[in-house]
Amino acid sequence: MVIATSSFNFTCIASSTANLTWLRMEEANGDLQQGELVVEAFVTIIAVSIVAFWLMKKGNKTRQAAPLPPGPRGLPVIGYLPFLGIHLHKSFTQLARDYGPIYKLWLGHKLYVVISSPSLVKQVRDHDVTFADRYPSTASKIISFGRNDIAFCPYGAEWRKLRKVFVRELMSSARLNASYVLRKRHVEKAIKDVYQKKTGKALDFGQFAFMLISNTVLSMLWGSTAHGEQGEMLSSQIRGVAEESMVLQGAPNISDLIPSLARFDLQGLERKIHVTFRRLDQIVSSIIEERRKLGEGNSVGEEAKDLLQVLLDLNNHGDYAAESSITDNQIKGILVDSMIGGTDTTSTTIEWTMAELMQHPDAMQKVHKELDEVIGRSNAVEEFHLPRLHYLEAAIKEAFRLHPALPLLVPRCPTEDCQIGRYTIPKGATVFINAYAMHRDPQLWDSPLEFRPDWEKGLPRDSHGREDAQLHSSITAPLIRMEASSWVDRGGFD
């Protein structure tokens, strides 16, 4: 309205100016020529009209642009940072109750947007290319070898190449089937150790699960490089460095929130990150060099190759511009992604599942009954049994719902302004998907805080209050894929 009024006023001024000029032209003395007055009048009218048109166009654009999401007010310079608790996902869930399913907050000099609604998450997926990039913290940039991995590589040709290599060359069915015996051997050894050494004694199940998963993953990565005590020592070193890197990447860094203070490294985090990175780089580089020293004399069939050998074969192409050739840093980045992403999240989910089953004896009894019926008491569990263990799968999904390994997933960073719902998410903002809040939303789940693998007793409700057996999968399954996977080749979610 203000813009429109201003435009009208400018038009009136233009008209008045024209009339005044014509009057001046009639009253002009002989020193001023009639032609000069005509030019003056037209120049004035054109100039004022251009300004009025620009103001009208700017006003229309302002009215059409969606506003930023609502959010809490913060303090100057540091924003809302002092008011957040230790557990960000819980603080963000509380804020969602006050400001709605999408809101903004300033932490330092950076704008953050938190989304806590399945319908809004689907809109984010509809703009998959815009949200393809992940926000790289200082720690992530260093640990990922300068964003030379799948998790933090900027979306583009290089990212598509890395993901294609990972999916086609490393995670193919033939490759996974070839390593089945290796996985089975590690599981059998772990169970045997528990039976022989821990019978009647306390067992740290979290440590047990982490050791089992990490040993299995590391053997799949470079199983033929180190054996015996050397292999166990190497695995122990890698586990220690991986744990340190995960802690450092999850720690809040003032340098990320207030970039002008980055050079001072007030918390000393960057120095710690560089120390951890040097240890990680030294370990991974030594493994790669040891494998290269083996040379071609130890070549094996395609299906018998471990993942490291597959990557080295691609690296040996020499032409890094080729479709599938990768650099040394990209090899290291993929290996670190596999180590960290394949161990901590999986072992955490297993630990929470066992903890919930131990707290709910009825559910544990049903799992035992299903195992007896499908497998039998005298047989070992094999991977081909898993599709038939429906109740066990439901128990794992329910534990994942209550205790997601990454409650805020990995933050995204839009490459352009984008409208989600009724609000604009500006380019460069950091976007959190609060899976924790959605998994515990009472509007979506009956008794959301209870562990209920039996969905026939408490199905989630749709928007009309009806029980919908498919809603559980429509909410949980995309979030599982978002957390456990990267993006599809065109930049979206798996």
TrEMBL record:
Which residues belong to the signal peptide in this entry?
A: none
Q: Which domain of life is it from?
A: Eukaryota
Keywords recorded for this protein, A-Z: Membrane, Transmembrane, Transmembrane helix
Instruction: List the Gene Ontology MF annotations in alphabetical order.
Output: heme binding; iron ion binding; monooxygenase activity; oxidoreductase activity, acting on paired donors, with incorporation or reduction of molecular oxygen
Q: Which residues cross the membrane?
A: 37-56, 202-223
- Which InterPro entries does the UniProt record give? Cyt_P450, Cyt_P450_E_grp-I, Cyt_P450_sf
Stated name of the protein = Cytochrome P450
Q: Which organism is it from?
A: Linum tenue
